[in-house]
Amino acid sequence: MIYMISSWARICKTLGEQFAKYLPLVMPPVMRVASFKPDVAVMDGEAFYGDVDTEKEDPDWNFVSLGDQKLFGIKTAGLEDKATACEMLVCYAREMKGAFAPYVESVAELMIPLLKFLFHGTVRSAAADCLPCLLQCARSRGQELRTRLWAAFLPAFQKAIEEENDLEVLADLLHGLGLCVEELGSELVTQEHLSIISSIINAQITKYWERKKEREGKSKDDDDEDDDDPEALKGEIEEEIGVLARISDMIHCLFMVFQEGFMQYFDQLEGQFAPLLDARNYYAEKQWVICMYDDLIEYGGPGSVKYQHKFYGPMISALADENPEIRQAAAYGFGIMGQVGGPPYAQACAGALHNLVAAVNRPDARSTVEDTAATENAISAVAKILKNNASLIDVNVVIPTFLNWLPIWEDTDETPHVYGYFADLVESNNPLVLGANNANLPRILTIIVEAFNKGAFEDAENAENTKNRLIQIVKFLHVSFLLIFEHIVATNYWLLELHTRYIYSRAFMRSALVFV
Fold it and tell me: How many other CB atoms sit within 10 Å of the CB of residue 362?
């Protein structure tokens, strides 16, 4: 049966909402397997060990000592099937959305208690994944149902998170709660709910610090060789970072939904985050905390400036960090200061410019995908600063350097910002961009062509306007500077042979250009 259930999930992913007509057939067996309750027993230890090794006699049972000569046993047969069935329910809800609405209440009734299912972590994780999907499925049935569901979900999440000891599952629980908030928004998540969620975050970051201090204390104990196992320590740290990452995601979600309304709660939490910016901490700790401050700057309004003295120095240092993830997080933050920070961040933007340039010009700037993403975030940060917050900067000094960095193509979240500013410069006939006697037109055309060829806009959101502006620039060049245009094409054909012909045909077919 479990193989059939897995097959149905794959079919569901293929058909999407069209799979709904098969739900009356597949849901009963899936719900039955997901509702499985394992057999448990408490046994006397002497009787258990007196005659035979019962665990070896029946491998379907596992036993753990409860002390006082007592053993707790659980029959594990069926648990893996239960976990798989729960994951399939997540798949159905996620893929079918509104078409799954008739099953929301029954699945919610099943999943809420499973947030604390003691015997299998995957079951708890699946329940955490499922609940926000059910809220999305319930959209078509109105806010009253979603309100009732949320009233049951929040206390269940709160209790489960409080009691969870498995860090991987804890991260999933935090993620599920954050997705619920993102799905419901400020209309259904009240200030009372926000206070509860903030208390959950505060409790978890407090526990994070307790575990961190305990771990660091053990690592200094020369007498305990087992705790010095580097692989075990690495795995433990990775699990901890997973929890911190989900806390950071929750902060992002809360700022995104409540904007400045979350500031009063962030004020209560910030003191726990700031010490993680210390350079002596693990690099991923710094990365995720910088992301939290990025969200503070982006959504926190003018009130974010009061924390500038805490994050500015560490973020400047982060631009030169050997880990590209940290450089990317810091570069994004300075870009946000430029984009939305306004006059209160003008000095910070001007002060960061030299460090951003150095981050772009690193020898390893594009040596890996991660390095490329960090570099392109730094380029985007410069573009955002030059466009929006350059009151203390000589823009004319920086523009030639900015142009030399183009094209970018890897980070499609940033391409609309970079090429939007590039289009501003070209459309305004900026002399530094066009060059004397339009000498830079070949360079301008090459930047645009390479951007399209490398897929700079293929997965970019909100990029349509920027794409159209670049196409209009190419059309203008074709009409107004035909000889130069054809020379560029011919030169590039000669340099890049047939591949370049493909570049031009692909890039300009959309703009209805025809040239031979």
Answer: 18
* Model confidence pTM above 0.85: yes
Entry field: residues in the chain: 516
Q: Where are the alpha helices (DSSP H) in 322-389?
A: 324-340, 346-360, 369-388
End-to-end CA distance of the chain: 62
Task: State the virtual CA torsion across 222, 226, 228, 233 in degrees, nearest 10.
Answer: -150
Helix H segments across 58-120? 79-96, 104-114
Do 321 and 309 touch, CB atoms closer than 8 A? Answer: no
- Beta bridge partner(s), residue 73: 41, 63
Output the CA–CA distances (angstroms, integers) from residue 377 to 1, 190, 325, 470, in the order listed.
49, 35, 11, 21
Q: 329: closest CA among 340, 318, 314?
A: 318
Helix (H, G, I), strand (E, B), or coil: what is residue 462? coil
Name 69's Cβ contacts closer than 8 Å, sequence gap at least 6: 44, 45, 46
Give the span between the Cα atoms of 244 and 289, in whole angstroms: 8
Q: How far is Cα 62 from Cα 60, in angstroms, rounded to an integer?
A: 7
Tokens of 21: 């007509």
**Would you give per-residue pLDDT tens digits along the chain (516 residues)?**
677 778 888 898 888 888 999 999 999 999 999 999 887 777 665 555 554 454 445 666 766 666 666 666 677 778 999 999 999 999 999 999 999 999 999 999 999 999 999 889 999 999 999 999 999 999 999 999 999 999 999 999 999 999 999 999 999 999 999 999 999 999 999 999 999 999 999 999 999 999 999 988 877 665 555 555 777 778 889 999 999 999 999 999 999 999 999 999 999 999 999 999 998 999 999 999 999 999 999 999 989 999 999 999 999 999 999 999 999 999 999 999 999 999 999 999 999 999 999 999 999 999 999 999 999 999 999 999 999 999 999 999 999 999 999 999 999 999 999 999 999 999 999 999 999 988 898 899 889 988 988 889 887 778 899 999 999 998 888 777 766 666 666 665 433 443 444 444 455 544 444 443
Tokens 């905390």 map to which residue? Answer: 289
Residue with tokens 């099953």, as numbered in its chain:
103
Q: For residue 349, which phi and psi values (nearest 5 degrees)?
A: -65, -45
Contacts 24+ apart (CB under 8 A), 77-80: 77/38, 78/36, 78/38, 79/36, 79/38, 79/119, 79/120, 79/123, 80/2, 80/120
Q: Indicate the helix (H) or strand (E) that contains 41.
A: strand 40-44
Q: Which of 339, 287, 294 is nearest to 312 (CA)?
A: 294
Torsion angle defined by CA atoms of residues 419, 425, 390 and 375, in that order, rounded to the nearest 10 degrees: 30
Which residue from 276, 339, 338, 344 is spatially nearest to 311, judged by alpha carbons?
Answer: 276
Q: For residue 96, which amino acid is it?
A: M
